[in-house]
Amino acid sequence: MINDVLEYIEKKLIVSCQALEHEPLYSPEALLAMARAVIEGGASALRANSPLSIRQMKQFFNIPIIGLYKKDYEDSDIYITPTKLEARAVIFAGADIVAIDATNRKRPLGENLKDLVDFVHEHNKLAMADISIYEEGLNAEEIGFDLVGTTMSGYTPYSKKSDEPDFELLSKLTENLKIPVIMEGKIWNPEHIKEAFERNAFSVVVGSAITRPQLITQKFAQMIPTSI
Predict the structure, then answer these.
(1) Rounded CA gap, 51 and 88, in Å?
(2) Of 139, 125, 142, 134, the residue nearest 66 (C-alpha)
(3) What is the pLDDT of residue 20?
(4) How far apart are CA 139 and CA 137, in angstroms?
(5) In 3D, which of 52, 108, 66, 117 has the Cα closest to residue 83?
(6) Which DSSP state fits 89?
(7) Which of 17-21, 72-76, 220-224 has the highest mean pLDDT?
(8) What is the pTM of this model?
(9) Distance from C-alpha of 5 to C-alpha of 156, rounded to nearest angstrom
(10) Distance (Å, rounded) from C-alpha 101 to C-alpha 81?
(11) Is the pLDDT of residue 44 over 90?
(12) For the segment 53-98, what is each residue's pLDDT rounded down to a tens digit?
């Protein structure tokens, strides 16, 4: 089953269907409608946040789900599936792949990253490392992650800051890792996807450019001249 999931998402588009509590599309109905729309458009897998969303999407759609559970802890800046508690919830909600922040930052509750990966594997699920720099990708492979995503590039204090996808990081990872590398982060147009696959991305995740209409609209609105 694990190998089947990887084969299913290889060289495919994955769409992140998420909304934060303060955003307009934050409701089970809206997220399900969003997921249905992107599947009709060609998405082969979904990335979803929270046990509720994961459970509902698995119930309605027969495609792989990369699941995560965002939660804030006072003793850490890590919030993507930060502890075993969140990982357990993602697993039992039915996710096929558990996405985990695998950056070098201090983890909450003193937990160990390798223990978290082992916990996911004990439940026969794949573990995806959301990393921000090359060294984190190397570490993720070494401690047993099944795949790596460039998700956190630009979101840690020590990673590259840019409005563009971190293709440099992608290339370095695909050239040196044996595990699949997923391109994720700041993918805003089809040309970005084309370049990602040319640089040997295993799959590409697109989020905001498809599923956050307030940000998409903002990009258009910003192009209106202040005076004509």
Answers:
(1) 10
(2) 125
(3) 85
(4) 5
(5) 108
(6) H
(7) 72-76
(8) 0.95
(9) 29
(10) 7
(11) yes
(12) 999 999 999 999 999 999 999 999 999 999 999 999 999 999 999 9
- What CA–CA distance (Å, rounded) separates 158 from 177? 21
Mean pLDDT along residues 132-147: 98
- Block residue for tokens 């802890």: 73
Distance of alpha carbon 72 from the chain centroid? 17
Write 83-89 long-range contacts (CB < 8 A, 24+): 83/107, 83/108, 83/109, 83/111, 83/116, 84/111, 84/115, 84/116, 84/119, 87/116, 87/119, 87/120, 88/119, 89/51
CATH fold group of domain 2-218: TIM Barrel (3.20.20)
**Which is nearest to 89 in space by CA: 63, 113, 53, 57?**
53
Report whether 97 contacts 124 (CB < 8 A). Answer: no
The reported pLDDT for the residue numbered 1 is 53
The identity of residue 185, as a single letter, is G
CA–CA–CA angle 214, 217, 218 (5° rounding): 85
Which amino acid does the sequence have at 135?
E
pLDDT number for residue 9? 97
CB atoms within 10 A of CB 161: 10
Average pLDDT in the chain: 95
Beta strands in 150-220 (DSSP E): 181-184, 203-206
* Dihedral over alpha carbons 162, 166, 168, 170 (to 10 degrees): 170
